[in-house]
């Protein structure tokens, strides 16, 4: 009977220790889960900001093309206005987000980058105007990646330890049909 008592006591101690080990593992996994969820929330917030930049970029181009055709500007003047308005938008986004967004011209394979400028935008974009001569014009703005096709307009978005890039792909285009005045 003495051996049974010792065996039962040792079994009880092993079970208590296993309970403590399981409780500690549970607490550690809860902490890890909280950290993972916080990281996912940051990533989702950055993804949302990237999508806002995409929409703002498209909107700025569309509004500039529309305003340029109403004003009777030619393709080169519209391209220049798009460059100026895009730089203005990028600067507003940078200052509004307190340095968490920075716009660049990325050189492939995206390891090198240079500050965004009007000249950089100008060299990486083109505009085509097809005028019917009957009050309807098709205006297409597109990203070329410059002559060598090795640059992209983009931004780095960084919040604490999460980062993401917004890249305007080579071949990106935005087309508007202008009815009324010919471009």
Describe the structure.
This protein has helices at 2-70, 75-96, 118-123; strands spanning 101-107, 112-115, 125-131, 136-143, 151-159, 162-168, 173-179. It has 183 residues and is α+β, with helices and mostly antiparallel strands. It has one domain. It has a four-stranded antiparallel sheet, covered by helices on one side. A three-stranded antiparallel sheet has the order 3-4-7. A hairpin with a 4-residue loop joins strand 1 (101-107) and strand 2 (112-115). Helix 1 packs antiparallel against helix 2 (75-96). The longest helix has 69 residues, at 2-70. It is rod-shaped and about 110 Å long.
* Number of helices, where a helix is a run of at least 4 consecutive DSSP H or I residues: 3
Q: Which term fits the overall shape?
A: rod-shaped
Gyration radius over CA: 29 Å
Q: What is the number of independent domains? A: 1
The end-to-end span amounts to: 104 Å
Helix residue percentage: 40-55%
H/E topology pattern: HHEEHEEEEE
Total DSSP E strands? 7
Largest sheet: 4 strands, antiparallel
Structural class: alpha+beta
Determine the mean pLDDT: 85
- The residue ranges in which pLDDT falls below 50 over 5 or more consecutive positions are none
